[in-house]
Amino acid sequence: MLSSKVINESHGQDSSYFLGWQEYEKNPFHETLNPSGIVQMGLAENQLSFDLIESWLDDHPEVLGLKKNEESVFKHLALFQDYHGLPAFKDAMARFMEKIRGNKVKFNTNKMVLTAGSTSANETLMFCLANPGDAFLIPAPYYPGFDRDLKWRTGVEIVPIHCVSSNGYKITKEALEDAYERAHKLNLNVKGVLITNPSNPLGTSTTRDELDLLLTFTSAKKIHMVSDEIYSGTVFDSPEFTSVLEVAKDKNMDLDEKIHVVYSLSKDLGLPGFRVGLIYSNNEKVVSAATKMSSFGLISSQTQHLLANLLSDERFTTKYLEENRKRLRERRDRLVSGLKKAGIGCLKSNGGLFCWVDLRHLLKSNTFEAEHSLWTKVVCEVGLNISPGSSCHSDEPGWFRVCFANMSDQTLEVAMDRVHGFVEAMVMSGNHGKQKRTMWDSRRRSLINKWVSKLSSVHCESER
């Protein structure tokens, strides 16, 4: 006999978001070894600025050598560390978070709880703030992983706050009240609102007016406000990033015990493998309980030691944030420009590692069945793993999340070539039958041959 947690399907990983990853893993694209494989555009990973971090590491070999002032700190790091974390690391994290927010917000390390990434942070907050069967309201479209991270082990329910493309997916008072009433009709006890700022999957930052509205709403309802700000350092265009804590301060709510922030280094520094996250809260009981829970998922001492040194270098962090934002903006512009040439539009974005792409004109009908059919075609025939809007709980079929920061310029060019060929084939065929499939297969073979030829030319030049 196994537990119900094991045998039921409540883990949330049977959505098309995760199924696309499975298809990619069966046939991953490689510039030379597998040029006809699937390009991974469903992974929100920041690989654009690794060279900056690697350069810093080259200049500071003693950090990787686990030395300080030429003395080994190996024994100190190898022995037991309690779950409060290294003070030097927490101080460095606090200063880094303040820098991202333009020093308009100050962070007290006594109100921080370290966790093994933001996944752990969000789940821990759910355990602290809600009981099984309670609900959190989340603006939709939202990150598909929340169906696993927030619900699976905690038993918490998610009620979407319906946001629409016609107003740029802005959070409105009407949408908040509607979600709250729907939850009560389902006999769900609403414990709070959770947002991602900037939004995943939209790539837009939450405006000051929206944050003001959210705080007014949660305060009136006497419920919690959770702001997942793991993409805060990726905001590369106007409007600039505004933290919920900044607006809370302006509303004299900066010590409110029902406001909580989640952060990690997975997106801003591109270090998801390091598993570094945290919870920030004014609520002493939440901090105390979450700290105890963190013993189930700690950040290793050597990771804290390395990052404490990296983040304490003010000159480096200033340069990194500026350059990383510049590279993200340039990469976003390349994706938007490439899609525009194929007649495809995007929601105007200013942050994150992805764009919310409008493929409604390519649907056979305005249904989620048609969206799923198009998504299957894009993944299996075009060879691009993108995330359909339905996996993000979008109310409108035809929108897709497309990631742009987890690949090289050359791979993005391959992806754009495939998009152009696919759209061209659809337009030219004018139908959805065998003629279109044959035309696309021919076009795709041509693109692959073109890419292999280009790579061979580059390799020949380098060998000379």
Automatic annotation (TrEMBL):
GO molecular function, one term: transaminase activity
Enzyme Commission identifier(s): 4.4.1.14
Keyword Secreted found: no
One GO-annotated biological process of the protein: ethylene biosynthetic process
CDD domains: AAT_like
Signal peptide: none
Protein keywords: Ethylene biosynthesis, Fruit ripening, Lyase, Pyridoxal phosphate, S-adenosyl-L-methionine
Residue span, Aminotransferase class I/classII large domain: 40-419
Top-level taxon of the source organism: Eukaryota
Cofactor requirements of the protein: pyridoxal 5'-phosphate
Pathway: Alkene biosynthesis; ethylene biosynthesis via S-adenosyl-L-methionine; ethylene from S-adenosyl-L-methionine: step 1/2
Reactions performed catalytically: S-adenosyl-L-methionine = 1-aminocyclopropane-1-carboxylate + S-methyl-5'-thioadenosine + H(+)
Pfam families, per database record: Aminotran_1_2 (PF00155)
Record-stated family: Belongs to the class-I pyridoxal-phosphate-dependent aminotransferase family.
Function, as annotated: 1-aminocyclopropane-1-carboxylate synthase (ACS) enzymes catalyze the conversion of S-adenosyl-L-methionine (SAM) into 1-aminocyclopropane-1-carboxylate (ACC), a direct precursor of ethylene.
Protein name: 1-aminocyclopropane-1-carboxylate synthase
Native species: Raphanus sativus
